[in-house]
């Protein structure tokens, strides 16, 4: 069954802790994206990757890091440098210029 | 930088009626794509409709259609015969065309659509 999976659905972070959000896809799409959504806001681009072993910063990359070692996977790490990490995080994939398709999201909360 | 503006934070419509959601955008590009996404309470982002800027014909998907005015940089979404399942946040989004590679989307802040039974 083709699709995009994100885990966990909910994630809790303690002060000073790094946490990693998972995004996996079996749509064979080259491009993958991470967005952040805050209440009352649209989505904002954190990082994106067009091919394996390559990625670019989006509009709000500070405090985040990513890797793209496999075509299917694009994990996002929220580092301790991100002072306001509480948000809903969405992963998306796309085949070149075409439409982006979104995963179900991960809600990150700070303890 | 591109910007997308949705000037209606909330809209309400009676079931079976028609509603139009507004979106304007600012870009210096000539080649781009525009999208409307729906986000129901589950928070899953669902593509509603897409428009290529080079196409003059307005896109249509069943009860959903757009009014794309390129010169005015306007991209409104019309929902006909509104149904209870249409209740959601609706986001307008922009992306550069093929010359920009697989860039990310720029989103508006969304319009909350309420359907009155």
Give the CA-based shape of chain A: globular
Low-confidence blocks of residues of chain B = none
CA-to-CA gap between the ends of chain A?
A: 35 Å
What is the chain-wise order of helices and strands of chain B? EEEEEEEEEEEE
Helix count, DSSP H or I runs of 4 or more residues of chain A: 0
Count the helices of chain B. How many?
Answer: 0
Structural class of chain A: mainly beta
Strand content of chain A: over 45%
Name the pair of protein chains with the most residues at their interface, and give those residue counts: A-B, 25 and 26 residues
Write down the secondary-structure element order of chain A.
Answer: EEEEEEEEEEE
Largest sheet of chain A: 7 strands, mixed
State the secondary-structure class of chain B: mainly beta
**Largest sheet properties of chain B:** 6 strands, mixed
Helix coverage percent of chain B: under 10%
- The N- and C-terminal alpha carbons of chain B lie at a distance of 41 Å
Query: Quick check: average pLDDT of chain B?
Result: 93
* Strand elements of chain B, count: 12
- Compute the CA-based radius of gyration of chain B: 14 Å
Strand proportion of chain B, as a percent range, falls in: over 45%
Shape of chain B: globular
Number of strands of chain A: 11
Descriptive account of the structure:
- By secondary structure, chain A is an all-beta fold.
- Chain A contains no helices and 11 strands.
- Chain A has strands at residues 4-7, 10-13, 19-25, 31-37, 43-51, 54-57, 64-66, 76-78, 87-94, 100-102, 106-110.
- In chain A, strands 2, 4, 5, 6, 9, 10 and 11 form a 7-stranded mixed beta sheet that branches.
- The radius of gyration of chain A is 13 Å and the shape is globular.
- The mean pLDDT of chain A is 92.
- Chain B has strands at residues 3-5, 10-14, 19-21, 24-26, 32-39, 46-52, 60-61, 64-69, 74-79, 88-96, 106-107, 111-116.
- Chain B is globular.
- Chain B is an all-beta fold and 117 residues long.
- The mean pLDDT of chain B is 93.
- Chains A and B meet through strand 4, strand 5, strand 9 and strand 10 of A and strand 5, strand 6, strand 10 and strand 11 of B.
């Amino acid at each position: 069954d083709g699709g995009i999976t994100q885990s966990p659905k909910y994630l809790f972070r303690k002060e000073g802790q790094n946490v990693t959000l998972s995004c996996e896809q079996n749509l064979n799409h080259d491009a993958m994206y991470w967005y952040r959504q805050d209440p009352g806001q649209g989505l904002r681009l954190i990082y994106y990757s067009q091919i394996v072993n390559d990625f670019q910063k989006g509009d709000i990359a500070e405090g985040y890091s990513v890797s793209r070692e496999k075509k299917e996977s694009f994990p996002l790490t929220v580092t301790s440098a991100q002072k306001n990490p509480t948000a809903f995080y969405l992963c998306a994939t796309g085949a070149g210029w075409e439409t982006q398709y979104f995963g179900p999201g991960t809600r990150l909360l700070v303890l | 930088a591109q910007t997308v503006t949705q000037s209606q934070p909330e809209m309400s419509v009676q079931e079976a009626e028609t509603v139009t959601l507004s979106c304007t955008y600012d870009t210096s590009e000539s080649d781009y794509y525009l999208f409307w996404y729906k986000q129901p309470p589950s928070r899953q982002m669902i593509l509603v409709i897409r428009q290529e800027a080079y196409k003059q014909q307005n896109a249509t998907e069943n009860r959903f259609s757009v009014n794309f005015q390129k010169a005015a940089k306007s991209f409104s979404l019309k929902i006909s015969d509104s149904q209870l399942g249409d209740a959601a946040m609706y986001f307008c989004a922009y992306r550069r065309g093929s010359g920009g590679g697989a860039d990310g989307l720029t989103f508006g802040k969304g319009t909350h659509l309420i359907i009155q039974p």
